[in-house]
Write a structure and sequence with these properties.
Blueprint (H helix, E strand, L loop, with lengths): L1 E10 L3 H12 L4 E4 L17 H7 L3 H5 L4 E3 L1 E6 L2 E6 L11 E3 L2 H14 L4 E2 L3 E8 L2 E7 L5 E11 L6 H5 L3 E3 L6 E8 L12 E7 L2 E7 L4 E8 L1 H4 L6 H10 L2 H7 L9 E4 L3 E3 L3 E2 L2 E3 L5 E2 L7 H20 L6 H25 L1 H6 L6 H11 L9 H4 L1 H21 L1
Parallel strand pairs: 1-2, 1-10, 2-7, 4-13, 10-19
Antiparallel strand pairs: 3-6, 4-5, 8-9, 9-10, 11-17, 12-15, 12-16, 13-14, 14-15, 17-20, 18-19
Bound molecules: flavin-adenine dinucleotide.
Pfam families: FAD_binding_3
GO molecular function: FAD binding
InterPro entries: FAD-bd, FAD/NAD-bd_sf, Flavin-dep_Halogenase_NPB
């Protein structure tokens, strides 16, 4: 069996792995990426947040991404019946990017993969990690190659960015269920000739269909749009037929989606996904760190996945390089705590969405402009700005504010 040697092995060529590999290479260490699939490959996660632009910039990916002409995204619009709440990222509390993109991920991830290869980082597709053995911080990873043969890669450090593959948590039994209930989605891409009638395509629209059922509408620059319903699995049992018949009936059950997509052609047969909320007992160990979805993916409602993936990939790779240079890293304080700060802020907003408190805040008839800016920062992915009270006190602010809004609404109704 052949054996290769490298400073850092990155598992997975999603956004987290590509950002991490670029940072390691820029620091002068040898790095190699292995990716189970052949690219381009479909993956869900098409609406980015402005905060991820900082990580993509640090990785050197922005010029290549700009050249693609992806659909620019400047905000997020929430719709519930005839109520509309529009959040413009340029009107947010935290300084930083107010623009990002809406991207078909097959293309987006391919651009990042092309860029890392252009930086002379070896990236092997159809190469799957099947086993890892640690000896202190050194490791030996066994991979299966495209022709079915096996080889070993010896590394001084492993960055596991394998997304839903969860390589190290699965191999070392670190998986733990998330504290969020299991949800399901049914989605497809549609032709979208009516998009300009709906004040788009330069932002994502989130439709509150029922208290616990919502819809994403993510237009791309190709003229096609991604539409997905997210709900408890039982919601989808209310509809019958083939996947196309089911999603067509679901689309037609909501006024907004019916007007815009009721007769639109599917670009591909609808797909379903469920059970995506998983976490792990530890984010790092001797000789490895987990990044992106492997740490935890919560819920798609606030498009947080790629931002958490790229920011954690950037942070982890920076720390790996410092450790390889001889520094002692306090991984708990420097990596786990900031990563959890971001994840837990989004967790409060996800839970607030599903318990209704955040929906009452978002659709408040007369929102306080300062509070709207602070919430807009969270929606833009700036979940590490502790100067923002809606980040610093994320677990405590939403319910009391929603209660005040409800009391005001009751008082108005009684007048
Ligand atoms: C329904 C739904 C909707 C979503 N919508 C959004 C959204 O709008 N915006 C957003 O930001 N996020 C969204 N997400 C989340 C998003 O999909 C992920 O957070 C994001 O893709 C994570 O990136 P990553 O780089 O960590 O992992 P991935 O993009 O999953 O990449 C991991 C890579 O590792 C490879 N791999 C796996 N196992 C192995 C192995 N054994 N060996 C080698 N390679 C391996 C995989 O093939 C894959 O290419 C959504 C998620 C769901 C479930």
């Amino acid at each position: 069996m052949t054996t290769e040697y490298v400073d850092v092995l990155v598992i997975g060529a999603g956004p987290s792995g590509s950002v991490a590999a670029s940072i390691v290479k820029q620091a002068g260490y040898s790095v190699k990426m292995v990716e189970k699939m052949q690219f381009p490959r479909f993956v869900i996660g098409e609406s980015l947040l402005p905060r991820c632009m900082e990580a993509l910039d640090a990785a050197g990916f922005l010029p290549a991404l700009r050249a693609q002409g992806f659909q620019e995204k400047f905000g997020a619009k929430f719709v519930k019946g005839d109520q509309v709440a529009d959040f413009d990222f340029s009107n947010k509390f935290t300084e930083g990017w107010s623009q990002t993109w809406q991207v078909p991920r097959a293309n987006f991830d391919q651009v990042l993969a092309d860029e890392v290869q252009r930086m002379s980082i070896p990236l092997e597709f159809e190469t799957e990690v099947t086993a890892i053995q640690f000896d202190g911080t050194d490791s030996t990873t066994r991979v299966t190659c495209p022709d079915g043969s096996e080889k070993e890669i010896k590394a001084r450090f492993i960055i596991d960015a394998s997304g839903y593959g969860r390589v190290i948590p699965r191999l070392f039994k670190l998986d733990r269920p998330s504290n969020l209930p299991g949800r399901k989605t049914m989605f497809a891409h549609f032709e979208d000739p009516n998009r300009f009638l709906f004040d788009e395509p330069n932002r994502i629209t989130v439709i509150a269909h029922r208290p616990d059922v919502w819809v994403w509408v993510i237009p791309f620059s190709t003229g096609k749009t991604s539409v997905g319903f997210v709900a408890n699995p039982s919601f989808f049992e209310e509809f019958e037929g083939t996947a196309e018949q089911k999603l067509r009936a679901i689309i037609q059950s909501n006024d907004y989606t019916n007007q815009r997509f009721g007769d639109s052609a599917f670009v591909f047969e609808p797909r379903t996904l469920e059970g995506w909320s998983v976490t792990t007992n530890q984010f790092f160990g001797e000789g490895f760190v987990l990044t992106g979805n492997v740490t935890e993916f919560l819920d798609p409602i606030f498009s947080s996945g790629v931002t958490l993936a790229t920011v954690s990939g950037h942070k982890a790779a920076t720390l790996v390089c410092r450790q390889l240079a001889g520094e002692t890293i306090d991984w708990q304080r420097e990596y786990v705590e900031p990563t959890q700060q971001g994840v837990n802020t989004f967790r409060s907003y996800v839970m607030g969405w599903y318990d209704g408190s955040l929906q009452d805040i978002i659709f408040a008839p007369n929102p306080d402009p300062e509070i709207k800016k602070q919430i807009c920062s969270v929606l833009a992915g700036y979940v590490w700005d502790l100067n923002n009270p809606f980040v610093r006190q994320h677990s405590r602010v939403l319910k009391p504010l929603a209660n005040i809004i409800r009391m005001e609404a009751e008082a108005d109704a009684g007048r």
